[in-house]
User: What shape does this take?
Amino acid sequence: MPAVTDAAAPRTTLSLQARIALAIGAVVAIGGILVLIAALAYGRHAAREAFDRLLVGAASDIAESITIRDGVPIVDMPVSAFELLALAPRDRIDYRVVGRGGETLTGSDSTPRPDDALPISFYGGTFGAEPARYVAVVRRFAERGYTGPVEVIVGHTLHARRALAFDIAQNAVVVLGAAGVVIAVFAWLAVLSALRPLGRIGDALARRTPADLTPLAEPAPREVAALRDALNDFIARLQRQLNANRDLIADTAHQLRTPLAAIRVQLDAVKHEDDPAQQAALLDRARDRLVALSRLLDQLLSQGLVVHRGDAARKERLDLRDVALEIYEASELEIAASHHAITLDLPETEVAVTADRLSLTEAGKNLLGNGIRHGVPPIVFGVSGTPQEARLWVRDAGGGPDDAVLSRMGSRFLNGASAGAGGLGLAIAHAVATNHDGQLAPRRGDAGFEIAMVLPRETPP
Amino acid sequence: MILRLALCLGFVAGTGATAQELSERLGPPDAAQEMRVRSTTDLAVLRPVLESFLDARPDTAIVYEQWLSNNLYRRSLADCEQGPPGADLVISSAVHQLVEFVNRACAASYVSEETASLPAALSWRDELWGITREPAVIVYNRELVPTQDVPRSRFDLLDILRNRSERYAGRVATYDIEASGLGFLFAYADSLEATTFGGLLESFGRTGAVATCCSAEIMNGVLSGRYLIGYNILGSYAFDLAEENPQLGIVAPADYTLILARGAVIPRNAENAALAAGLVDYMLSPAGTDGLRDAHLLTDLDGLIDKGAAAEAFGASQLRPIELSPKLLVASDRQKRSLFNDLWRNAFPGQ
Assistant: This one.
């Protein structure tokens, strides 16, 4: 087994603010890179579109200016074409007009020609040592003496395109950067305001006196409210535990005081009695009292345990028949001592409940013990069930306890002298039944008295 | 003056068509560094500016070569494409050729405070800079042309050619656009500015006007009385000559006056590009522009009015600077030139 570090302080992980800052930073950074790439691509595309139109405009201008004179195409180069091209002020201009035979009519002989003879084709090339963009526009003639195409090629270098693309991308990045800053600031403010209730709850807890177990009343948004409500639940459980402990101590003191006083009186009487026979009788009575007292003590502890477990114990799925058998086995000594025959009545099929095994067993032992001690044989102990409920019951032929006892079975304080351990056993069973959303159901009939713990039945899986 | 005339005659005689007209070394003989400037500008005009540039740089010398514009262009292109390093700085009045030169990626880029201060229309790609402002003017002989005949605009010129053709026929001269790059540029710019150009060509043809090679020859002809009027003459030369010859009248046409900014480029394979850049900066600096103004190479609107070439009412909107932009590439287009030359030859048959 790995060594367990003793009393390790709970780990504090990265703050939520830092996490959100990281997340937003990552989003803005990744988004920024994507937008930068997109902006560059868009800028290049837009610049290409814009300046390609310029090229086509210039080439069309030149194509329009061609006339056929004596079977020869004559280009009266229009200034407007170059005015268009001069809109890219720093770019060098290359042009060429090619006749149907591939001969250069005017312009530069070294201007590259397109691969395909489309009406309009765009292509890249080099002009001198620089990359350039070209367009070729074909004008077809059907004139006397000249039938065929004249190809006008216009190109220019890429300075203006690059400048425009860069400009567009730069603007996009500036806008994105501003948006990123705004997003980050707003996210930061949102996180600060979202986390403020946590701080308030923490402060409220820190300010409390140790005895203050009232629920927290700080307002909180839904997410934080879950934490607050869980804390309040926890505080309520703590409050109940504390109450249970206090009650146990009070009960125990209350229940023990009377029998102890009685025993002391008897022992005092023994001291003042000279007759040995009377002395022995008094000692026997004191002993009986002590036996009863020890049983009472057991039950008080048992009640304390049950009440304690009511909140704390984990409930599990149980077969009530198993629980009954366990109770029966745990009570065998008492059964043997009572000389009664106890009949066990269990159904064929499982009777499932969700319950705390220990509480249930304690409660059952108390019910069965009451039956053995106070009941009139025949005594039957059993389990039965309807689709909605499960019953663990004890039946005897007697009349059962007084109505007064039954009516007080839910209350804590029972008169130990009058009701004794029997009433306390009922109180324990009642507490367990209540803890399991059930009830304690006494029934007096012609055949005798039956008391049952009725619990909600778990539906078979 | 005599030298210039002789040079012009020499060209007309057909010698040295592909070589420089003149080469001279300026600066101390033992200068540590030397740059080669090729220019269409007369050395006599530019000399004071170059000398004041060299005064501040005792270790520098300039080899100055004076070329005809078309020859300079051919040579510079050849140097760019295959030749050994040629000029370190090329200055030409035929700026459409320099635009073509830049467009062929033959020029080196250079940026300085001075070049950046040029208006956008007078520089291109930080490779071509307009260093002068020279109007295209009409010159006339004050003694032979009566005041009422002095053409204040192209319309006046058209009118006297139509109404007084018996006096002016054959006695109006202008550049031969096939021989002179600058002449072609002015004629081309005229053709873009107004429809008067067509009328002028027609009148020139009808009255037998003369097209010849050089500003010097035209102006000397005007002074001697052989011609009465010269059209589209570079103002810088005219103002220079008028200082000594008061009978030379100068008019900036009131309909519009073309303003040429002589261009400078540093060839990309220049060996002394830094020196050339220094000279460009100098010519654009206050000291340089003062020198250029004294040499009549920087004539603005106020200068035109001061010199009496333009009336007081002359406005800046009447000045049409020739933009240094890729639009000038049209002027270098093969078919455009050939169409334009055809048009010209129809007007000047047999010359």
Q: What stands out?
A: Residues 178 and 184 of chain B are 7 Å apart (CA to CA).
